Structures are given as structure tokens and as C-alpha cells.
Amino acid sequence: MKNILSAVLLLMLSTGLFAGKGLIVTQKYTDPHQKGASITVTWYVTDGQCKMQMHYADDKMNTTSYFIPDVTNSRLLTYSDGKAPGAPQNTYYTVPIREIKGDNDQGHINVTQTGETKTLAGMICEKVIVKTPASITEMWITKDFKADFYTFHPYFQSSYELMGLEEKELKGVPLQSVTKDNAGVVINSYELVTATSADLKPSDFTVPADYKLAGSSGK
Fold first, then answer.
1. Residues 41 and 57 sit within 8 Å (Cβ to Cβ)
2. Half-sphere exposure of residue 82, counting CA atoms within 13 Å on the CB side?
3. Cα 53 from Cα 189, distance rounded (Å)
4. What are the start-end ranges of the E strands in the chain?
5. Sheet strand arrangement including 174-181
6. Is 103 in contact with 158 (CB distance < 8 Å)?
7. Are 205 and 44 in contact (CB under 8 A)?
8. Which residues contact 28 (CB under 8 A, 6 or more apart)?
9. Which of 6, 137, 169, 207: disulfide with 160, CB 3.0–4.6 Å?
10. pTM (2 decimals)?
């Protein structure tokens, strides 16, 4: 019996530290074109759902917005904390996936798994390089947490990281990355702040109940 229990324990450990759990990753986002702005991005990820929370602050604005892929209906749900300007109630919006367009590079994509690893926030990550005709992205993706995060690229077309993951259907979540153009100038970067495992519920990936669809009298 002792040997059986030991074998079961080893099997559980071998399936990964985050089996049956989700991951919450907070990153500081830097874009040279957004000078003076403070941008923090938090991803909530499970093996079948994700949500992006973005806090943006500058001398004119301070807001937190959310973006949730609605895979069943092929659309992106988005809303912000509080009431939208001029709106009588909390409002959310939907964007059909066919209308989502990215602004990153087009053309041939080359993805290289380097085999180089390092530990970030207690998780082993592998360095992955994504090259396009006009850019190169170096990112560190989780090896312990192997969710199919890449499937959400159609909802976040501007993400170089998701573009690379989707190209080779690589499992894992990027914890930090930097993207440069061919001259070595940084296009954008994500610096890891925190990454923690969490028991995420289906309700973590839904629009708050007191929000109403824009242009509708109800949900």
C-alpha cells in the first residue's frame, strides 16, 4: 500500500505543479510610443480560458480595462471599471473575432525553442525566439504550466508573444519578453512583476453581473 501511495504521489507531481489550477501573471508593459504612461498588464489563464486586465495611467487618464475571449461565440468581451463617460450604467462591449486586427509584423514567422532555461517567480521557463521579417522577440515561457494559451492569439492579434506560440502551438505562458526591430530598437517589452498559481473559477472570466451590453436594455 505504501508503494502504491508513493507511485500516485509521483504521478501527481509529474503532471505539473499547476495541474488543475490557473496562473495569474502581472507584468509591467513598456512601449516607447507611450511616453510618460504607466501600463500594467495582468493575465488570468487556465487551460481553456483567459482574461487580460490592463491598468493605464498618464497625466490625462487613469483606468483599468478588461478583455475576455468568448470562444463559444467567437467574440471579445471588453469593459472598464466604473461607468463609461456619458453612459447611464456600467457597460460592456463585444467585438467579433473577424473584426480584430493586429498591428504587428506580417510575413514568414520563425520560432526557435532554444533549450535555455531560467527560473522566474519559482517557475522554470524556456527562452523562445520569434523572428519575423521586421522584428525579433525573445520571451521566457513557463515549462511547469502548460496551458494552451496560444489558442487565444486570434483575440489578441497585436501580441508578438502569442503570435509565436500559435505558430508552433507551444504550450505555456510568457512571463517576460522584449521585442526589437531589425535595428535593435525596442518596440515593446514585458517585465515580470509577479506570477502565482491560483484556483480560478468560471466566474473569473465573465463580465460583472451589473454591467449591461452597450446598445441593449439587458444581457
1. no
2. 6
3. 17
4. 22-30, 38-45, 50-57, 62-70, 75-80, 91-96, 110-120, 123-132, 135-142, 174-181, 186-198, 212-213
5. 110-120, 123-132, 135-142, 174-181, 186-198, 22-30, 38-45, 50-57, 62-70, 75-80, 91-96, 212-213
6. yes
7. yes
8. 39, 40, 41, 190, 191, 193
9. 137
10. 0.85
Displacement of CA 78 from its chain's centroid (Å): 14
End-to-end CA distance of the chain: 54
Per-residue pLDDT of the chain (219 residues; tens, 9 = 90+): 444 434 333 333 333 344 348 999 999 999 888 888 899 999 999 999 999 999 999 888 889 999 999 999 999 999 998 665 565 578 999 999 999 887 665 678 999 999 999 999 999 999 999 999 999 999 999 998 999 999 999 999 999 999 999 999 999 999 999 999 999 999 999 999 999 999 999 999 999 999 999 865 444
* Whole-angstrom distance, CA of residue 219 vs CA of residue 208: 11
Closest CA to 143 of 112, 159, 168, 120: 120
Q: What is the largest CA-CA distance in the chain?
A: 67
Q: Cα(89)–Cα(211) distance, rounded to whole angstroms?
A: 7
Q: Which three cell numbers stand for residue 113?
A: 525553442
With 0-12 CB in 10 A as exposed, 13-18 as middle and 19+ as buried, what is 51?
buried
